[in-house]
Every structure is written in structure tokens, then in C-alpha cells.
Amino acid sequence: MVIRRHFGTVRKRPSGRWQAVYWSEGGLHSAGTFTAKADALARLSTIEADFRRGAWIDPSAGQVTIKKYADEWIAHRPDLAVRTRELYEDLLRLHILPSLGQTTIAGLTPSKVRGWNAQLAAEHPSTASKAYRLLSTMMRNAVDDDLIIKSPCKVNGAGTEHAAERPIATVAEIEALAQAVPGRLQLLIELASWCQLRRGELLGLRRRDVDMMHASIRIERSRNFRRDGSSITKSPKTSSGRRTLSIPSNVLKTLETHLNDFTAGDKDTLLFTSELGTPLTAVSLQRAWSRARSSIGRPDLHLHDLRHTGLTLAAATGATTAELMRRAGHASASASLRYQHATKDRDHVLANALADLAKRQEVSKLGRPDSKGGSR
Q: For the chain, what are the domain ranges?
């Protein structure tokens, strides 16, 4: 028995089940088989409604595997920075594709995503957040590509990282670290702390970026490292990253000494080089940093924590969010708000101020006349 409609056809199969089919884009598509004729007709009505509102998806389009789609997705993203591309490739290779790689996009259900995320989060919480964000981004693009109707990534809060508070160095420790590294790296420690520069920004500095007359430094480029150790120099990702910063007066003497003793006269010479005058490598910098932090008893500190320290200290001096954004080279306020919290040094200042307030109150009480007209 065949029942023809203005949209699609329902026919009874030899098995007794009812099959719903319809034509679209020059091909015949099956909408599935059903026990009852009414169910097959209802399915066709749903598909017809999808056509009318422009929400129909070719059911064969989503049969590409997650691995195949991920490979194409990465290949078609020339905008990705080198380190970002390497991070995505690592997340896919180590944490996404082993579990989900052979699953089709159409077959990736919210329950599968939830189970995968729960298992990964139990072992590597921070990595799980990064991996989930990447998978979620790819699935949103799959929706845009008309491969699926909606994203299966629906785990609330899975993409939010709850990283531990970054360690902060004291002002005394910053000075000790600067003294503990080789002389040619002392300025690097001070600029990371007091000008709040990233590692890549520090290693991209050239002599021409320093203006001693106006006590300022210009950030025009960043020099970072690939996984294989080779370096790449590029402009900042956003216009906010390209900025000119005033140099605190306590750094100027070190800067002048560095320019005289460790930097060649050519304006394009890198500010930080090896003893041979070659560009500083990630390995040599990390080796010097590891020795310095161990020598002051702070093996928990990373070089990037000096930037974090400097921005936190700037916030403690009363810097506004806009001022922190400009100094840090942030494009959004949310990135700078994290630095507006208390430090140990600032907490001592506040505690002493509270104590002084209490003392003044006590003195005021002692000098207040009692009810009989005398002083207490």
C-alpha cells in the first residue's frame, strides 16, 4: 500500500512497517520506518515544517566523523596563531579524538558529550574545560555548515575553568630574582614585573622600542616559540596589545646599564640576547629562571607570574580597570578585573590602617568628658 501526499510518500513494507520517504535537492531521502502509519505521516509533517522555516538538514550531511571534520576544521583556520593551533591539535589528539573521533557528527548526542566530559574532568579539570570549549566551537560551526540542526554540547559550566589563584611575588622577591639571574637578564625580570610584559613581548623588544628621553617603551611585536623550539615573531593579536608604556623610575638605571653593556648599537637589535649575541632561546631563559626562583625559595613561581604580580600591585595602588587594561594590553575588562584583589603587602597596609583607626577611637574615648563633668 502506498499513500501519496503533497509532501513525501508513505508505503507499507513487506515487514508490515511503514516507511516515510521524500524528495529534496534531486534525491530521495528516507525519513525512517515506523510501526504505525500515523507515526510515519507525522514524521513527514515535521520534516515539511522544517522545510517551510528553513531548518531542514540533509540527513546524510552529518555522517562525517568527528575526526574528519576536525581535520578539515583545523586546515580551514589560517587565522589561528601558531601556539593556538598547536594547543588545538594537542587537545584533539590526546583528549577528544581517542574517545569521540569515530563518532559521526549526527551521532554525537548530548549524553555522549556529557559522559566524555565527566570522565576527562575527573582526571584533568583544566584540560577538560579547554577540550570542551574546542569541541563546542567545532559543533557550533557544524550547525553553521548545515551538518546538524543544533549543537550536542549542552553541559552547563563545562567550558569554565576554575584555575587556582596564581602565585604572587613580593616586592623583595622581585628584587631578589633580578639579582639571581645573569646580568643580561636582570632587566627582563624588572620589565616583566614593573611594566607587566608577557614573555613573548619581552623577547620581541628591540633597541628602537626604548625611549630613554621619555622613559617609555613601545610594544610592537611578540616573539614566541613553536613546539619544536623554533621561534616566530608577529604583531600583537589586537590593537590593545600594541601600546606604549611609561617605565617606572626604579627600572631606568637597570635599563641604561643593559643598553650600554648587553645591547648592540643597531636599532633593530633585540634587547635580550645570549652571550653570543644570538636570539635568546626558550630553553636558556627557562634554565636561568628555574635557578633564580629556586635560589630564593620560590619554585612555585612561573615567569608569567611576574606580570600577574605587577598588575596586581598596580591595582593595589588604585589603578582603574581602564588603566589596567591599557597597561596589560587587554582588549576586554574581564581580563583586567582579576588583578583587582588584595596582595599580602597591601593587606598589611590595610591592617595597619585599621589598627590606626582603632587607636584614634581609643584616644577619642579617653579624652571624652564623663557624665559628672570630668574626663575619663
A: 2-56, 63-144, 171-337, 342-376
Sign (positive or negative) of CA dihedral 147, 148, 149, 153: negative
Region 208-224: mean pLDDT is: 95
Q: What is the pTM of this model?
A: 0.68
341 is catalytic: no
Residue 47: CB atoms within 10 Å: 21
Q: What digits encode the pLDDT tens for the residues 330-364?
A: 888 877 776 765 445 556 666 777 778 777 766 66
From the list 43, 95, 184, 198, the catalytic residue is: 198
Q: Is 339 a catalytic residue?
A: yes
CB 271 within 8 A of CB 263: yes
Q: Output the CATH code of domain 2-56.
A: 3.30.730.10
Residue 307 is among the residues annotated as catalytic for this protein: yes
Query: Is-catalytic flag, 93?
Result: no
> What top-level class would CATH report for the domain 171-337?
mainly alpha
Which member of 304, 341, 348, 360 is catalytic?
304
